[in-house]
Amino acid sequence: MDQEAQAKYGPWALITGATSGIGRELARQLASNHIHIVAVGRRHAHLDELATELKTEFGVTVLPVPADLRVPEAIQTIVSSTEGLDIGLVILNAGAELTGSFVHTDETAHLQLVQLNAVAPMQLAQYYGRRLAARGRGGLMFVSSLFAYQGVPYVAHYAATKAYLLSLGEALHVELKPYGVDVLVLSPGLTNTEMTANMDIDFSKLPLIPQQPQQVAAVGLQALGKKATVVSGLLNKVMAWENRLLPRATPVSLLGFLIKRALKRGACPEGKVA
Ligand SMILES: NC(=O)c1ccc[n+]([C@@H]2O[C@H](COP(=O)([O-])OP(=O)(O)OC[C@H]3O[C@@H](n4cnc5c(N)ncnc54)[C@H](OP(=O)(O)O)[C@@H]3O)[C@@H](O)[C@H]2O)c1
């Protein structure tokens, strides 16, 4: 990151979901560019560990903000914690998955998923979007997914929340440009993180090449200010693009077939799905 970008996106960056995976790596890479971090996540110990690590390695300050983004009050907690800080970059990365037959999964889990993956990023984008626009420079990054580019059976609602972020972010890229605010939607494909390790899918049965969070974070930070959207990884880019060339139903049926075969026992009760 050059000095101009550091001035634009610093001195503080806010990252939701900074305790592990892609968000943690984004925090590390920004800290290596001398940007202080407001780190949001539920796990207090992980937040404190990150603060110590980034202070020791890069000499930056981390402000830990413990918050559960499935709870609406979390937004106010984050807003109050950042009132006096000059935030130049906001990364809306926190997210969770929900795998299995849509009709057999719990409604509460779906409501929490939409709150975490869609409602909270929308509210934070609006609040910090206003602040960044008033500041006249800055960046806003949404972490979406390759699954945003098509319907994904058995991960249907997760993919729908990611499509929401993709649509919101690419529109805001145009709306906020006149204010000097760069908006990017970063779409990772399969990435080796806690989320995928805990999913009810055997990814070895799918034609996907996993990436490391370090690679994904670097792709996002390199594309910020240059593009509206970026898909991380060559094969993933091809998969996102082929959807535009094929009839829309084709990749949806194909991925549905592949994922159903790769589901771990219990994620899709056989005989119950119509
Ligand atoms: N890994 C992949 O293959 C992949 C692919 C496409 C997109 N993505 C997206 O990348 C983003 C990061 O995921 P990851 O793969 O890096 O997984 P991860 O290691 O599990 O990280 C998820 C992060 O989100 C935070 N989070 C989860 N639930 C939260 C809640 N209720 N409130 C506040 N924070 C919460 C977690 O922190 P706490 O647990 O401490 O709260 C953690 O920091 C997600 O939006 C995910 O959808 C991942």
UniProtKB/TrEMBL annotation:
UniProt record similarity statement: Belongs to the short-chain dehydrogenases/reductases (SDR) family.
One Pfam assignment: adh_short
Matches recorded under SUPFAM superfamilies: NAD(P)-binding Rossmann-fold domains (SSF51735)
GO molecular function, one term: oxidoreductase activity
Matching Gene3D superfamilies: NAD(P)-binding Rossmann-like Domain
Protein name per UniProt: Putative Short-chain dehydrogenase/reductase family protein
Location relative to the cell: Endoplasmic reticulum
Alphabetized CDD domains for the sequence: SDR_c
Oxidoreductase is among the record's keywords: yes
Keywords noted in UniProt: Oxidoreductase
Recorded superkingdom: Bacteria
EC identifiers of the protein: 1.1.1.-
